[in-house]
Write a structure and sequence with these properties.
0% strand; 5 helices; 138 residues; mainly alpha
């Protein structure tokens, strides 16, 4: 996922590689890594109970969903760290609202702007990764 984001940022958007791009790549790496780790037990559970075709399709959906959710969560934590200086007293009612709406705002921004960074190579990498995770080894 890091390579997909890097390819999209440099080739499609023409961004020079600087510190902000490295920070963004770290978010996409963490999201892809966490997504794979979270999807792994579910893929194993389905793999042991169904055919190879069903396992591959489920692995593709699980990897996609968990990777997107994990990347959005990492980005929400980054937003929370940035906006914490303006938030109210910890564990107050206003603070809770601020946490929820900061997370919702970052997730919306990721859905609108960030998902397209997965496009160049993410879909291409999804097929072999799904097959590799869904295959049965003896």
């Amino acid at each position: 996922m890091l390579l997909s984001a890097l390819t999209s940022l440099t080739l499609e958007y023409g961004r020079p590689i600087d510190g902000r791009v490295f920070a963004l790549l770290a978010v996409y790496f963490a999201g892809g890594f966490a997504g794979c780790l979270l999807a792994w037990p579910f893929i194993l559970w389905v793999r042991n109970r169904s055919s190879l075709t069903v396992s591959i399709v489920f692995a593709a959906f699980a990897l996609t969903g968990f990777t997107l959710a994990s990347t959005a969560a990492v980005l929400a934590l980054d937003y929370r760290a940035y906006y914490a200086q303006w938030h109210s007293e910890v564990l107050s009612k206003v603070w809770l609202y601020q946490q929820v709406f900061t997370a919702l705002g970052s997730t919306y921004q990721f859905a609108v702007i960030g998902i397209r960074l997965y496009w160049p190579l993410g879909v291409v990498a999804l097929v072999p990764a799904s097959w590799w995770l869904a295959r049965r080894t003896s």
